[in-house]
Amino acid sequence: MVPTTACYFGSLHLEGTMKLVKYVVEHKQRALVGKVSMNVENDVGYYNKTDKELQEVEQFIKRVLSYKNELVQPIITPRFAVSCSNELMCGLSKTSGRDTNVAFRIKFYTKLYEYKQKSHIGKQKKEIEYVLETNPECASYTEVYQRCGIFNSPCIMAHAVHLTEDEMSEFNVRQVSVAHCPASNTRLNSGLCPVRKLLDRGIRVGLGTDISGGDNASMLDAMRRAMDVSLHLAMMGQPHTTLDWKEAFYLATLGGARALRLEDKIGSFDIGKQFDALLIDVYAMGGPIDKYDYNSGEDQLVELVQRFVYLGDDRNIRQVYVNGETIKKF
């Protein structure tokens, strides 16, 4: 399923990520694009020195904003605490923070632009162990990010499979969002994210694909896998964990908009919002859904959406709208 909005992890490389930005702008998608930041040395040389990385992030922000495209925003993207030093993450949090004296604060038109951040947390238990071993002064993975100021601006964290109760409470208080990536978490044997628990604690949750950790970029696939993961938790004896199709649909629409702090613009058809939508032909010729109707009225409409969530694919999509404009026809 074609997403009208995406939050992209780009590459370590400035020019490569700018090519992604250019592609997104040309295809009129709504997007948050991040140049991935890493400065911890590794055998393959996939890192930058701290000063160079901070300079490139500043350049990246300026170049994205130079498009003056309201649909495409830069997002600060430290990969995660394993591949970023505290010095780098502190520098990046200043880039996105509220201190107007910080050198990296950039004026966009006549106002200050407050940057969002994204990273990932708690994907693997061994990852958590390593982060705590290298940050002995911190009681949790979350505290590492807190100390570096990562949570001082709107923040999206991928995975969050193994959060403690205290960490969930902190996510709620700080309004940190979670991008649930069920396909990736399953493929990499990371664990089963307790999405119901996150939602019950007031945490904003959307869906992610984590390509190429995941194997499918479709939001339909992410919805179905999210339901599967919730059922697996229930089968393991964890009560009240299941997500039904309506909740999965919410995670892929308004839930995702809330996770990105865009719910005032998109995510539903409320009056005053921008029109981002897919035109769906449930019974498309040659499509995967057989035509039969046993209900009528509102029940029939709900049933059509349910069939699309469970069985639909790209063959059912006829048009894609972003900000009221048709950007794709099939």
From TrEMBL:
Keyword Phosphoprotein applies: no
Gene3D superfamilies linked to this entry: Metal-dependent hydrolases (3.20.20.140), Urease, subunit C, domain 1 (2.30.40.10)
Occurrences of domain Amidohydrolase-related (ranges): 4-326
Keyword Cell membrane: no
Any one GO molecular function term: zinc ion binding
Cofactor: Zn(2+)
Signal peptide: none
InterPro entries to which the protein is assigned, alphabetical: Amidohydro-rel, Metal-dep_hydrolase_composite, Metal_Hydrolase, Metallo-dep_hydrolases
Protein name: (African queen) hypothetical protein
Lineage summary: Eukaryota, Metazoa, Ecdysozoa, Arthropoda, Hexapoda
